[in-house]
Amino acid sequence: MSARIAERIARKKPVGNVRNRAAFLALRGEVKQAIDDGWPVKTIWETLHDEEKVAFSYQAFRGYVNRLILSPPANGEATPASVVADQPRQAAPRLAPQSAKQPSEWKPEKPTATGFTFNRTPKKEDLL
User: Fold this and answer.
1) What InterPro entries does its record include (predicted)?
2) Which of 22, 92, 112, 116 has its CB 3.0 to 4.6 Å from that of 6, i.e. a possible disulfide?
C-alpha cells in the first residue's frame, strides 16, 4: 500500500513536503535497515540522493529519520531521538524510566564547589 501511495503522490506532483514525506515513507524500511547496520545517516542520504530516490535536503532527511524512525514509540519507552551525521549509529541502551517519586520527595541537589567563583574584591597578589 505504501508503494502505491508514494507512486500516486509522485504522479500528482503535490507540494514539496507531501511528496518528500511520501518518498521517505516508501524508503523507510531500507533506511531503517541501513541505520541498524551501522551506516551514518549522511551516507545513507548521499546514496539515496545520488540514486535520485530523494530530492530533498539532508536536513529534511535527518528530520524524517528522527521523527519517523528514531522517535519514541507510543508505548512510552524512551529511545534516542537525534542523529549524529558523521558517525555510525551505535545501539544505545534503553533509558530507564524516571523514578516514581512524588514532588514532595524531590530534594534539590547541593551545588558543588568546583568551577569559577567570582570574588568582587581582588587580591593584591593577583593584580599585575
Assistant:
1) DUF5338 (IPR035225)
2) 22
Whether residue 58 is contained in a domain is answered as yes
| Residue for grid cell 528522527 | 66
Per-residue model confidence as pLDDT tens digits over 3-19: 887 777 667 665 667 78
Grid coordinates standing for 123?
Answer: 587580591
44 neighbors 31 (Cβ within 8 angstroms): yes
- Residue 72 phi/psi, 5-degree rounding, is -60, 140
Q: 40-84: per-residue pLDDT in tens?
A: 999 999 999 999 898 889 999 999 999 988 886 666 554 444 444
Which three cell numbers, joined as nine digits, stand for 39?
551506516
Q: Judge contact between 65 and 41, C-beta under 8 A.
A: yes
